[in-house]
């Protein structure tokens, strides 16, 4: 399975907001930081807000922030909300599917992958906050380790 860009961008938004919990962030800021299409990011943020991951504040000094604590948002929950269909293969049209063991193996693999994703929260992805913030601020990875 390969995760879509939509899921990738959703996780990036959540990580960005988690690294900046002290303030509101804008779509423009995140778009610029990650070099992601502003329009595409608007759709991502809209869905994150609808699903209760992000809180948006309208107006001149508005922006967005996480709607829940970082330790209450699992990677698995985000993946389930942003991905469509978890069938690794289309076994429904196969002549052998009633007797084949592949369907069960694929389902077991998918369940194992989602269980791993469920074991991680947004908080657990921020092991080195200081380095991550310096990287977002535009410092090269080489200079990050020198401080």
Structure description:
The protein is mainly α. The chain has a single domain (5-140), classed as Winged helix-like DNA-binding domain superfamily/Winged helix DNA-binding domain (Arc Repressor Mutant, subunit A), CATH 1.10.10. 50% of the residues lie in helices and 5% in strands. The protein has 7 helices and 2 strands. The chain has helices at 5-19, 27-34, 38-50, 75-82, 102-118, 129-136, 141-144; strands at 54-57, 63-66. The protein has a two-stranded antiparallel ribbon with strand order 1-2. A hairpin with a 5-residue loop joins strand 1 (54-57) and strand 2. The longest helix has 17 residues, at 102-118. 14% of the residues are buried. Mean pLDDT is 90; it is low at 143-147. It comes from Sphingobium nicotianae. This is Rrf2 family transcriptional regulator. Keywords: DNA-binding. GO terms for molecular function: DNA binding; DNA-binding transcription factor activity.
* H/E element order: HHHEEHHHH
Low-confidence stretches: 143-147
The CATH homologous superfamily: Winged helix-like DNA-binding domain superfamily/Winged helix DNA-binding domain
Report the principal-axis shape: elongated
- The strand order across the widest sheet is 1-2
| Secondary-structure class | mainly alpha
Question: Number of domains in the coordinates?
Answer: 1
Overall number of strands: 2
What is the percentage of strand-forming residues? 5-15%
The overall pLDDT average reads 90
The radius of gyration is: 18 Å
CA-CA gap between termini: 38 Å
Largest sheet entry: 2 strands, antiparallel
Q: Could you name the CATH topology?
A: Arc Repressor Mutant, subunit A
């Amino acid at each position: 399975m390969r995760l879509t860009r939509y899921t990738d961008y959703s996780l990036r938004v959540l990580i960005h907001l988690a690294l900046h919990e002290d303030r509101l962030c804008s779509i423009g800021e995140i778009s610029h930081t990650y070099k992601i299409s502003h329009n595409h990011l608007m759709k991502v943020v809209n869905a994150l807000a609808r699903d209760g991951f992000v809180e948006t504040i309208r107006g001149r000094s508005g922006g967005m922030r996480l709607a829940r604590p970082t330790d209450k948002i699992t990677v698995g929950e985000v993946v389930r909300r942003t991905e469509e269909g978890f069938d690794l293969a289309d076994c429904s049209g196969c002549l052998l599917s009633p007797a084949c063991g592949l369907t069960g193996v694929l389902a077991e693999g998918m369940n194992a992958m989602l269980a791993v994703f469920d074991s991680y929260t947004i908080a657990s992805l921020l092991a080195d906050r200081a380095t991550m913030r310096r990287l977002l601020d535009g410092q090269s990875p080489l200079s990050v380790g020198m401080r």
